[in-house]
Each structure stands twice: as structure tokens, then as C-alpha cells.
Amino acid sequence: MPPKGHGPHGFTGAKPKNMKKTAKRVLSYLSNYRWRFILVLICIAITALTSVAGSLFMQPLIDDYIKPLVLMDNPDFTSLVHALTILAIIYVFGILAMWLYSRLMITISQGILKKVRDEMFAKMQRLPIKYFDTHQHGDLMSRYTNDTDTLRQMLSQSIPQIFSSILSILAVIAAMIYTSWQLSLIVLASVVVMLVIVKFLGGKSSFYFARQQKAVGAVNGYIEEMINGQKVVKVFCHEEKAKEGFEKINNELCRSMTLANSFANIMMPTMSNLGNLLYVVLAIAGGAMALNGVGGLTLGAIAAFLDLSRGFFRPISQVSQQVNSIVMALAGAERIFELMDAEEEQDEGTVSLVRVEKDGRDYKETTSRNGIWAWKCPNEYGVSYEPLKGDVRFFDVDFGYNEEKIVLHDINLYAEPGQKIAFVGATGAGKTTITNLINRFYDIADGEILYDGIDIKQIKKPDLRRSLGIVLQDTNLFTGTVMENIRYGRLDATDEEVYAAAKLANAEEFIRLLPQGYQTEITANGESLSQGQRQLLAIARAAVADPPVMILDEATSSIDTRTEIIVQRGMDALMKGRTVFVIAHRLSTIQNADVIMVLENGRIIERGNHDALMEQKGKYYELYTGSFVKE
Amino acid sequence: MIKELAKHIGEYKKVTILTPIVAAVEVALEVLIPLVLARLIDLGIDMGDMAVIKRYGAYLIGLTILSLIFGVTSGRFAAIAAAGFSRNLRRDIYNQVQEFSFHNIDKFSTASLVTRMTTDVNNVQMAFQMLIRIAVRAPLMLIFSVVAAVFINPKLAVTFLVAVPLLGIGLIFISTNVFPIMDRVFKTYDKLNNVVQENLHGIRVVKSFVREKHEEEKFNQTSENIYRDFSKAERIMILNAPLMMIAVYTAMILISYFGARFIVVGTLTTGELMSLITYTGQIMMSLMMVSMIFVMLTISRTGARRIVEVLREQSDLTNPGEALTEVEDATLEFKDVSFSYTDDLDKLCLKNINLTIPQGAVVGIIGATGSGKSSLVQLIPRLYDTTCGEITMGGVNIKNYDLEVLRNQVAMVLQKNTLFSGTIKENLRWGDEHASEEEIIKACQIACADGFIRQFPQGYDTYIEQGGSNVSGGQKQRLCIARALLKKPKILILDDSTSAVDTATDASIRKALREEQSQMTKIIIAQRISSIKDADFIIVLENGAVDAIGTHEELLTNNEIYREIYQAQAKGGDFDAA
């Protein structure tokens, strides 16, 4: 039966674009298990032959053992027992072979799945931020769920079953022809009829399933939207309207579902009864042939043939079913490979961050934790060391998320070590974008950014990012304890260092009040914590990393004034003694800034400290005093 | 539980009952076929009588065609019944939720309601379809086949009486061992999804702290657990097929041997032996089906329970019998009002509130998160009912007004607001279905939305995506205010409704409201002092109680909380340059 999934892909459009290439690539994963897979194929063949052997045995059973014995006065059953023993041994082999290939397929399929999942995740870690901007999370998630699951079904069920079905069909055909070629012709004719019927029913069924899937999507979408807005529906007394709207699409779903399921349900009884019909026709024809002495058919041969024909229809309908599910699985695999083939974040940097200590006039590398950080720059004479200070400069930087649309123009700015640079401006003016350029989440289109005099393109990305701390507007925490979440900033931080960071961030007070203190488990992005508390943890996390340069994106609203004061104190403590880029919403932050950049439409339109900008009576003055009323 | 769900079959009752009956007939016919065939073989082929072959051949063809017709019919009926049942069920849950109060909705959470209406209904529908057809077919096939076998030869049928229970026990053993492991596998899957999801959401954090390797390790460990547990479960599950084979093959060998002996003695015919072998296959297959059905039904039980929970939920909001449909005076009075979301007197979020809000007043409400601001205003349009005390409007208890009339007079702009997919105009008409163009534009002008709407290429016909994802937060808030204004209410409540709007626009909205809608009572909850500074009076809430009431100047001089907030905002407050 076709699947009833209602993930983002659903049933429609589940055709792979390049089936051959994808199939080849899936099979390439099998190559690690080459010998085992060959063994699987051998076992499948043995299993298929065993069941044919059982049917074929009907002929000697009836013709050679039973019939002659009936005529004897003193029947001797030893030869029958002998034959049955051989049959039993064949059966045992068949069963063992079946068990063995199922067992081997588990190792193969689960092993491949693990490899695919791990590769996919590892790959995802190497993708640029841009990729995540342009792909929906739900869509990426479904590659780990729906798509890997269909792949699992294909590997563990469809592939062995298709082989087993094909081998059974071949073995049965051979056995049938061997038993009676005349009756075989009847069977082959009926197969043609059956294929036509399967094609018709299957086509209808998948047509209506596609329609049903569309209706399911509509109903689910409607439910999601309405239930999420249920409170608004109530406030506007819109309940009756909402019911009417639902009734309409729900009825449509019912119609297409009835049709889709009808065809799916009809398939099975049609097939099994056609099988019965063939069985009956064969019995009649076989009987007639035996009576007229055509083809030398004995009763035992007819019995064997009938038994063979029973086992013939099922594998045929199975093949068509499994082909469908393989096509679907390949579509899923294609999506997985699409992720795996996505362009990775490029890192052509050569400069790295190392700990050094002073050795006379030069620096030398050290593993001691007392050493200071320095940039290790390879040059034609070997290496030189440049102490990490936190000096960041932009020269004529242009940037666009794509080449056609430049969103930042001619950005120039100089942040000396320990300085605080504030960005203000409307949403979409480009504040966040600028900060995303410093840590190379995005690469600039033109111009240059220097960090301690080194072009950031020459610095290895991990080292560049390690030298920058960041507190984002939306806090992301990870499942784990409070301790683990703070330590995320620096994995080798001692407990004491974590406590110190929490204290600095002003987070200590609330952590102590949690049921298990630092060992309290955080789940679902800290749903049990308030927005303010989550921010405090993010500040502590940045504090434990202790980088010379910080990028802060202040949260706008949604926390009350009192919590805000606590968060603010934490932020202030974090900023002390560092170069700070802050996307500011609070007056206190701005007033203390060394330089304020006022951004509008991707350009810096005013710069200077608070007093200077106020005197200028420009945009900043307008924003600050709120003395204007316009959109 | 089943009884309760069965109520929703409704007009599909007839088809639902017919399906298993038709299916039973189909099974009976199918089981008859080998019996008749045995006759054809013994009396026709073995005896060499062509007339008998022709006669029984005709019977058999008739039987299969009948069985085909019944089989197709039962499949069709099952589809009709199941699709109809799920339609009714979905509709009934949906309509039930429409009757829910806010209290009911909170209890379930919207996400869980959505799952119940989609995934759960789907699973229950599948189970239902299986229950009325396959779950009838498989056991009947088993029983009929055994009966037929006993009818042919009771002694040989003993084989089945031994093999069937043995296989049954084996299947039960396998499933009871697999269940707990699979349970663990599903939990680990959840964990894996969680790791991926957190990674996706926090990808910027991961990258800025250079934690890619750390994340990979976390993932690989979970992935390893799935690999291990899933393999373990599958290793047990694959025993199913060999077990079944053992049963079938053993039965075949035994039947062949004893069958041969009986034929020689003359108590069995060759045709009958063949039928017995056919029945062996059918019996074992149906046994497999039965165990599969059992598993499927267990899985869908959870979904069924979750659906029944929603259907059982009683809405706790009642409309009065003889309701007042006219609101003459919108003066509000809170008399000793206390309120708890859980009706638990120990967990009150509002305590002994006494207030009077005259019609046309502009009232500001301020206080820390959790001080009860939203709770207080939600009581006015009866989104929740008071736990103790009463609220009157125009001297009449609000519970005596018709609920729809009350909510139309008290327009509320919720903190978490939603726009629906549709054009801007359609969204605004939620406030008033018959609003004219002029009225719509007027409302938008007051809400300072007209300006940005006109800048959209399609203006008022701009299509809003689901959840309003294609307009900014501030624009969304302004559209929601305009939508509420179109109701032409006597009381307008803004619950932190301009938080994403810049200070200047916020000010002009308030100015327009004051000038254009002077008769309307305006209750404004805000974080920013600037939003409520010029209100007629301001209510300061603290821990669910009224701490002080007064004008901005009064509160500045004699209320500590207010002063503290003011000072905090004045020196470190907002600089939202939107």
C-alpha cells in the first residue's frame, strides 16, 4: 500500500531526477559489504529454490510413492520416509539460508544507514551559513527522518525482496516449463492479463493518492493555521466561519481518500482471486489434458503444477510494489546526496592562532596555558608571530547576499583594541550583516577587513572565530546541564572557570536558585527558563571563552525592565577590556560607546560619539529625541 | 474508548457493518475453493470423467468470480467507511475545539491539538479500516481453514492444532521481546532529531564557538545507539519468517507422510491431500496477519486515546440563557476579582482587584513580567472567567451578556497575535465582514498602517503568507490594531501591541486613537513608560495585585516601582530606532 506520510515531501513529486546516478551512488555504499552482499544473494537463491523444491516434490509424492503403494498389498513406507527426510534437509537449508541473509542484511543496511547519517551530519557542519539561510529547517530535518527511513526500507526490505521475488519467478517458471510447457503457456497468458490489471489499478491508485496527498496537505495546513490562531478566532467570534472553511476542504479530502483507498483495497482481493481463477483454470485444463493423454500429464504433475502456480502471482505483484518503494527511496536518497554535495564553506586561510611566550625579542610557541595568544603567520622566511590584540578595521567594504543586490556599501571603520563600537539604525539597515562579516559567516564582495593587521581571509576560519565572542539576540541553548551549556564556550574550562564566568555574567544568582544548580538539565532550548535567564547563560558562555573581541546583539524587548537591568550589568561586565561591536538598543550602551555608527540602507550615514552626534542634529539626534513623526 | 469513537461513524454505520459481513462471505467462498477442487481432482481427473471436470470446473469458476465480487465490494466499502469516519472524526474534533475556551486550549497546547487532528486521526483511520476488514478476514480465514481441514480429515487436522499454537507462542515471544527495544529505538530517534534540530537552530552559535567537531561527536554517539539498538531489535524480528517456515514445512512433511498412509488405507483421497496442503499455507499466513494486526492496533491505541481526550473535554465557558444583546454603557468595574489559571486558590495570579474604568478613559497598565497584566485584561472579554469576584460593564455582570456581543464590544489585540493567509483586506474584514473600503482605510490610517500598505505593489490586496511571515513584526502589530478597530468596539485593549513599533509611530497611533475615537475606552499594556505616560490614569501591578493607581506625575512622586522602572528606562532604556 502506498505510504501515507505527510512530511514536507509527502507522496507527490517523489520521483528522483536522476534515478540511475542516485541508484549507483546508493549501491556504492554496498561495496564495503561486497562479499557479504554476494553471500546474501546466494542465500536468497537457495531460499527461492527450496520453496520450488517443495512444490516439485508433489509429483513424486503422488506418482512415485502414493499411487504404487495403493496397489500393494503390503505397503512399504521406507522409501517415502527416505524421500521426506531428504526434503526435510532441503527445507532446513532453506530456512537457515533465509535466516542468514536476513541477518546479514541487518548489518549491511544498519551499517550503511549509520554511515549515511554520520556523513550527512558531518557535512552539515561544514556548510556555510548561507546554506542554512536558503534551506528550511524542516526540510533539512526530514532528510534525517523521512528520507533515511525510506532508505532503510529500501535496503532492508525492498532490495532483498526484489531479488528474492525475481529469483522465485525464474525458478517457478523453469519448474513449470519442466513440468508441463502447455500449462505454462496458460500461466504466461494470465500473467499478461494480470499485469494489465495491476497497471490499471496501480495507476488509478497512485493518481488518487497524489490527489489525496494534496488534500491532506490542504487540511493539515488549514488546521495548523487555524488552531495556532485559535485565540484570535475566538476574540473575533469567527468560529462559525472557521467551521465552514474546514468543512469544505475536509469533504474534499474525504472524497479523494475514498477513491485512493478504494483502488488500494481492491488490489489485494483482485490479485488473490485472479490467482484462484488461474488455479481453477489450470486444474480444468490439466484434467482435460490428462484425460486426453496430451503431454503425458500425470495427476502428480498436475498437483505439482497447481502448487507452483500458487506461488507465482505473489512475487510478481511484489516486484511492482517494491519497484515503487525503491523509486521513492531513491528520491529520498537524492535529497540526502544533494545535502552531501552542497558546496562547503571554503577556508583558504593559513594564519593560525597559537599560544606563545616571550623569548628575548622573539616569541616562541608554548603549550602552557599561561602563554599569550598570537597569530602565527607563515611567510617566505618561515613564520612570524603577531600578538592577538583585537584591532579590527574595515576598508571600503561592500557586501551582498547575492551578487546582484549589494546591501552594504563602502563601509569603513576602525576599532582599536578595547574600543566599543555601537551600531544603530532601522531594522534592515545592515547592523547584523556587518557583524556577520567579521567572523566570516559571509564573505565580502569588495574591500578588505583587517584583524590585527592581517586580512581575515588569510586567517583560518576556526581560529578567527575562536578569537571572537558572540552573543546573539535569540539565545540558543543545547540539551544538557547548565554547566555543560556554559562550558560550550570553552570545552576545557574547569568548574571554577565556569563559576567565575557565571558570576561575571550576573547569572550566578539565578543558577543557584535552580533545583539542581549548575547540574540542572536544560531541555527544549531552555523552555523552563525565562528569556532573560537564557540571555544570562549566553553571556556566561561567551565569558568563559574569554576572547579579545566580542560581538553583541542586544535583545530588543520581551523582557521586563528589572530583568533587563540584570542582563545589562552582565553585558557591561563582559564588554570590559575588550574590543566590542554591539548592535545597540539601549541608551546606556550607546552613551558609553567610543564610536556610534548610524546606519541607513546599508551605508554609514553618521559616526562619532554621543555628544558629537547630538551636536550634529542629524538622524541620530532625531532618533534619540524622538522629535519627528514620520514613517 | 472504542464506543466513544464509534459514535462518530454516523451516516457510515451501514457501510461499516456491511464491510465485515461482505468480507466474511468472501473468506467463506475462498475457503470453499480447495474443497471443491478436491472433488474435481478425485472424481474428475483421477476417475477420468470429463463431465465431472466440466461440472465442478463451472462451480469453481462461479465461486472465484463471486469471491472476487465480494472481495472488491468489501474493499470498496472499507474505503468508504474509513474515509467517512475520519472525515467525521476530524470535523467533530475541529468543531469541538471551536467551542473551547482559552482555558481548554491552554490545557492541550496548540501544537498537540494539531497533532491530534492530523497524525492521530490518520492512525486511527488506518486502524479502523483494518479493523473492519483485514482484522475480520484474517482470523476468519484461520478458523474456516481449520474447520475445513477438520472436515476433510480430523486426524490429520491435529497437525494444525499443534503447529498453530506453537507458531502463535513463537510470534508472541518475538513481539514481546522486540517492543521494549523498539521503544528505546524511538526514544533514541527523538534524541537524534533533537540534536539535529538544536544544531540547525544554533548553527551560528556552533560556528562562532567552532564546535563542529563537538557536535559531530554528540551526533555520532546517538547515531551509534540507534545502530546498536535497531540492529538488536531487527535480529529478533527476523526470526519471524524462519519460524513461520519451520511451522509450514513441518506441517507439510507430516501431512505428506500421514496423508500418504491414509490414502493407501483409503481414508483420504489425493485431492483432499492437496487441499490440506493449500490450507496449511492459508492458516500460517493468516496467523502472521493476526499478529501483525495486533501490533498495528496497539500502536494506534495511543492516538485513539489522545483523540478521545479532546472529544471528552468540556468547554468551561457558558453562554447565559437569556443573554443581554445590547451594551449601553461600557463603564467597567472590577469587584474583588481574583483569578487563577488552574482554579487553584493557592496559585492566584490576580488577587482582590478593585477598579473602575469609566467609558472613554485612557488607561495604562505597567508591571514586571508575571505581574498579571495580561491576565487582568483577558478577563474583560471573558477569554477567561474570574475565579472569585465579578466584573460588571454598565452595572451588569459581564457573564449576563451574550458572549459574541461582549467580544464584539471589547476588542482585544493579543500579545501573541496572528494574521491568516489571505489578502490584507480579507484579514482586516475579520473585524467587520461588511466594512467598506473607506472604513478599512480609515482604520489603517489610525493604526499607522495605511502608509506601508500603500507601498506594497498590490496595496490592500497584498497576500499575507501563513502566520504573516512576509510582513515585519511592527507591520503585523499595526495590521492587528486596524483589524480590531474595524469592530468599532466600545473598549479597545492593546496588550503590548506596539512593542515592535518604533517610538515615534507608537506615539502617533496613540494620538490618532485619542483624537479619532474619543468615546472608546482604551486600555494599554506596555513595557515602555513612554507608551502610557499620557494616559488618564496608570495602574501599577505587582505580583497580581494593584500596587498603585494614578497619573504619570502622581506615580513618579509617590510610587517606588513606577519610579524605578522610569529611571531604568530613562538612563538605560530603549533606543529602538525602527
Q: Could you explain how this protein is built, in words?
A:
The complex is a heterodimer of chains A (631) and B (578). The longest helix of chain A has 53 residues. Chain A is 61% helix and 14% strand. In chain A, the strands form 4 sheets. Chain A has a 6-stranded mixed beta sheet with strand order 10-13-14-7-15-16, sandwiched between helices. Chain A has a 4-stranded antiparallel beta sheet with strand order 2-1-3-4. In chain A, 44% of the residues are buried. Chain A is built from 20 helices and 16 strands. The two termini of chain A are 58 Å apart. With 631 residues, chain A is α/β, with parallel strands linked by helices. The N terminus and C terminus of chain A are likely disordered. In chain A, helix 2 crosses helix 6, helix 6 runs antiparallel to helix 10 and helix 7 runs antiparallel to helix 9. The radius of gyration of chain A is 37 Å and the shape is elongated. Chain B is of the alpha/beta class. Chain B has 3 domains: 311 residues, ABC transporter type 1, transmembrane domain (ABC transporter transmembrane region fold); 154 residues, Rossmann fold (3-Layer(aba) Sandwich); 73 residues, P-loop containing nucleotide triphosphate hydrolases (Rossmann fold, 3-Layer(aba) Sandwich). Chain B is built from 19 helices and 12 strands. Chain B has a 6-stranded mixed beta sheet. Chain B has a 4-stranded antiparallel beta sheet with strand order 2-1-4-5, with no helix packed on it. In chain B, strand 4 and strand 5 form a beta hairpin. Chain B is elongated. Chain B starts with a helix and ends in a 6-residue tail after the last helix. The model of chain B has no long low-confidence stretch (mean pLDDT 85). The chains are: A alpha/beta (631), B alpha/beta (578). The interface between A and B is large, with 159 and 162 residues.
